[in-house]
């Protein structure tokens, strides 16, 4: 059993394709197959169900993957710690990001300063929903992830506060108000985000004992804004995901605060703060100063 074999196993479990993994690692598919067979023989288990080039983890493979990811994570921490001792500050950083707020706003701001201090660190951004981020943190397939606080499952670090706002077509009478309530929004077709804010938008309606008339679900905020711009309905999004330059592209959309105002706190989460590498610690410290 080697770290190379473990890395191939973890990557194949994620990509589910010999071709993709071979291309990513710049090695032959036969080398990938040989590495997996060696592990299966060594552990006396079948790790994958094979269907031509596509693969799926077996139950045993899924159980062992969790331990393999732990080993690879510790190996990465060790390498970064050694680099830090020698003053090289080299290594990799894997960040989980949900929605436009973290991907389009926070990460560019943080990485701008981070890359100046740590120019030799290779950064990987993995984007998904808030549920994806939680799973990736648990699996240690990312080093640190953006979450909405509080989140008792992980060790967290507060980064920034944000508010939710309503997007309303200017053709609606609601758009002429200074603020809008959830009660007023449920009277119109609702465009629901299926990205990072979905669970929080759903929860705010539940707490108010209201049910929005959901017309469609969209994963991209640009699609939501464009639909509102075309008078298809109203929506609620995180204010941080919007900026003045973006809003000028959609002249028929009015952004209004909610009444009462609904806030959220964005933070960074790790599985165990006692086990984070110097690079992850540095990233968190820079994020908290942005």
TrEMBL record:
UniProt KW keywords? DNA-binding, Transcription, Transcription regulation
Cite the Pfam families for this sequence: HTH_1, LysR_substrate
InterPro entries hit by this protein: HTH-type_LysR_regulators, LysR_HTH_N, LysR_subst-bd, WH-like_DNA-bd_sf, WH_DNA-bd_sf
Per its UniProt entry, which superkingdom is the organism in?
Bacteria
Question: Which residues does the UniProt record annotate as the domain HTH lysR-type?
Answer: 1-58
Q: What is this protein called?
A: LysR family transcriptional regulator
Q: Does the keyword Transcription apply?
A: yes
| Family, similarity comment | Belongs to the LysR transcriptional regulatory family.
